Amino acid sequence: MATATSTTKAILPLHHHHHHPPTAATKNGLPISIRAYKDFILEFHQNQKPSNRAIKLAESLSNMLYQQIERNLNHRTSNVPRIEDKHDTPTMSPKEDISKKWQEIHGSNDWNNLLDPLHPWLRREIVKYGEFAQATYDAFDFDSFSEYCGSCRYNQQKLFEKLGLTKSGYEVTKYIYAMSQIDLPQWLERSRFVDTWSKDSNWIGFVAVSDDEETRRIGRRDIAVAWRGTVAPSEWYDNMQRKLEPIGQGEAKVEYGFLSIYSSKSESTRYNKSSASEQVMREVMKLVNYYNGRGEEVSLTITGHSLGGALGLLNAYEAAKNFPGLPISVISFAAPRVGNIAFRDELYQMGVKTLRVTIKQDVVPRMPGIVFNESLQKFDDFTGTLEWVYTHVGVELKLDIRSSPYLKKGMNLVGIHMLETYLHLVDGFLDSTTTFRSDAKRDVVLVNKECDMLVDELRIPHNWYQLENKGLERNFHGRWVKPTRDPEDIPSPIVESYNNVLEMQDS
Amino acid sequence: MATATSTTKAILPLHHHHHHPPTAATKNGLPISIRAYKDFILEFHQNQKPSNRAIKLAESLSNMLYQQIERNLNHRTSNVPRIEDKHDTPTMSPKEDISKKWQEIHGSNDWNNLLDPLHPWLRREIVKYGEFAQATYDAFDFDSFSEYCGSCRYNQQKLFEKLGLTKSGYEVTKYIYAMSQIDLPQWLERSRFVDTWSKDSNWIGFVAVSDDEETRRIGRRDIAVAWRGTVAPSEWYDNMQRKLEPIGQGEAKVEYGFLSIYSSKSESTRYNKSSASEQVMREVMKLVNYYNGRGEEVSLTITGHSLGGALGLLNAYEAAKNFPGLPISVISFAAPRVGNIAFRDELYQMGVKTLRVTIKQDVVPRMPGIVFNESLQKFDDFTGTLEWVYTHVGVELKLDIRSSPYLKKGMNLVGIHMLETYLHLVDGFLDSTTTFRSDAKRDVVLVNKECDMLVDELRIPHNWYQLENKGLERNFHGRWVKPTRDPEDIPSPIVESYNNVLEMQDS
């Protein structure tokens, strides 16, 4: 080296032990044995001259050891539980046979005595449905430079496999597409280009059905419908709280923006010649008839986050009208208010059970009608504004970001609203007076997929859910190209409905 | 379907040909044959009922065809050349034997008659060195959540392979690390955490040497040094134009911030017990002695972008002092001014040849000394501010973003300064009066790696250069974890210098 070589002496671990008895001695708060290793490694780096190839291995090992020691010291001073300790454990509780209790879990007794403390079977089912709703985000093509912007990146046969949901025990049977005939700025994800798969429609969710094994475990054949929401609720905040539209034959009314997305159709489109409503009703009817025909008990469970929760409630209302006697429950996350009192009352009369999962700090469940909410009901007859009173439906499971040691406590409005934040808090919820349960199994890292909610000590990058090079790939010549989508992953209304017919015939 | 079936008749391509002679007929500006296909496909979608599985294939094909037609229409109306046409072509011109002309290409005649028009051999060499400089960005770990933030993500044996530079004909022999003893805010990329690979140093570049085949082609053994710059020049704009420090024994002075990065060292660090200056001089000396000892002619070519160009000039100055007679050239991109007139004059006297590549719209080459620049030289004796007069060195190749049909023309200060934008414009440069050459081979997509400079018609995502899920990987249990870095990719000062010794002995 050009600089002077070190003039300090090599100090071996033994020296330190000599000066400091190893029992309780510390230096700078470190146990001496670790301190000695650190000195040894530093000295090793300063004094050794390379003499043979074995030193390479020693060097690498000492590097890693050095960092492990620093890391341990670092973590010792933190209140945040180490997530590394759970790296080699499953991310879900084992499956248990809930067949004897499934009606209660789906609200037959209005979730009495199941929410506080939260029954572990119910917790597991809430997370299961929540992950279906999350799948509608994870697989959605948000890239406005993509000609498939607004579609699902995978076809329905591949969806669960690509997202690691094959163990869910469900199979996707139908994709649902939606459009809106009224102008809802920012709702539709649209490609920047002319030659897009669809100018009008977005993939808005899917229908799935439990397989035989899951059906045995949960005590009935379950049809699950998952509705996609929007990522940034502020986008529709201004546009969706202005007007109520009638639904059904009575006094029930619902927010016109939600209803437009749920029921719009146009013959000039490829994917919404029938509305989302018609698509999902047709699929549910087909499945109900098929499994009833085999003598099976069937249930319908509808889930969705944010706007998706609102669409889910419209879906439940319509399904209850069309399938009297079918057990229908809704598990919604961060859903805004949807309709008026009459809408709620009709849902109750028809036996629809709704579990609303909310986070105390999330503003979206207070929309629309932050002003005109239930607490004003007593003024209704007086003011004549009954139709303007949006109201919530069902039973609430209320979460609190302060309960989790993993979450930042600032008012990150987007992060607090994210479905992954909800699922994290459900997974850790014991009861309303206790903090996060220590044996929660769900992967904490998921929270930061599309936000920055995890405390920095965990060292998880924020907004980490992203494609390598935004989907560009280097070809044989070294050029970066957009791979063409596999033909089976290009959205195709005919193929999707046709596949269904074939599969029903095959079964 | 629940909706009414279409009542329009199927129209076959033949009908259209019947009504419109195929020769010059168009409809909405489309050749009729394409229009007919479109109608056919639309009708196909509306009228066909699924009857067997073959329809799936037809449907997929028609989908793709439909989109191809739309794409063609879209492109036909644009002035931007199609980049898809070059997908299956090489990204560089073929290598030619430049051994007879290499001194001229490296400035022996001050690039007289080589720049306007730009000699194709020189163009190819500029891009070659520029891609070395680009490699210092592409492999740099910018992730502040990484414990290796500020290091190179790959070890020196793997660098070129990982970046697709194996065909360059060079091999990396040494990594260079730098620190700064004066506070240069925002210069150092630093991990957020205590247990980082280094608290003080950043990877700042590398030394490479031409292999035997490339050496034959270029007429001498070439030692290349590539210096990394900073990504956002605004970060050091405010901090690096205040003070000149003497360099050498005469009147030469250079900007103190650049000099600090180039020459700082500290015994308490792991990677800068010797300075960047000492590291690179030692390596160059070793290589020069080795190849001179084998009777080979040797050259030194230094490259860098932005701050890296400034460091390269300091490097050239020092090398010229230490190796009189060694042909030294600098090819810099977007480099700011570095020193005073005396510094420039010493460089000239020692025979250092500098080719400065600039973009007319880029502000960085006007820094420091936007005010105190060459044009004020006549006032120097009067005002006594000679030492404050920063001056540029060498010969300029001046580019213009308006020359490329692929680039947006707005004043995107970051995008205009990016090295990939420079390399794109060099690749397309014919002469100062002509626009972009149509046979330019370099991949246009690269421009948008870390900015948004390509026109939207090209549909290339902006800032697309990114890791899948920011480096997180799903493990066996479905948990997202940070993979530990391979031991050989953990920066290690001993291993790196030791490997070199071994390799020199092996050769």
From TrEMBL, chains A, B:
<dbReference type="Pfam" id="PF01764">
    <property type="entry name" value="Lipase_3"/>
</dbReference>
<dbReference type="GO" id="GO:0016042">
    <property type="term" value="P:lipid catabolic process"/>
</dbReference>
<keyword id="KW-0150">Chloroplast</keyword>
<dbReference type="InterPro" id="IPR029058">
    <property type="entry name" value="AB_hydrolase_fold"/>
</dbReference>
<keyword id="KW-0378">Hydrolase</keyword>
<protein>
    <submittedName>
        <fullName>Phospholipase A1-Igamma1, chloroplastic</fullName>
    </submittedName>
</protein>
<keyword id="KW-0442">Lipid degradation</keyword>
<keyword id="KW-0809">Transit peptide</keyword>
<dbReference type="GO" id="GO:0047714">
    <property type="term" value="F:galactolipase activity"/>
</dbReference>
<feature type="domain" description="Fungal lipase-type">
    <location>
        <begin position="225"/>
        <end position="371"/>
    </location>
</feature>
<keyword id="KW-0934">Plastid</keyword>
<dbReference type="GO" id="GO:0009507">
    <property type="term" value="C:chloroplast"/>
</dbReference>
<dbReference type="GO" id="GO:0008970">
    <property type="term" value="F:phospholipase A1 activity"/>
</dbReference>
<dbReference type="InterPro" id="IPR002921">
    <property type="entry name" value="Fungal_lipase-type"/>
</dbReference>
<comment type="similarity">
    <text>Belongs to the AB hydrolase superfamily. Lipase family.</text>
</comment>
<feature type="region of interest" description="Disordered">
    <location>
        <begin position="1"/>
        <end position="27"/>
    </location>
</feature>
<keyword id="KW-0443">Lipid metabolism</keyword>
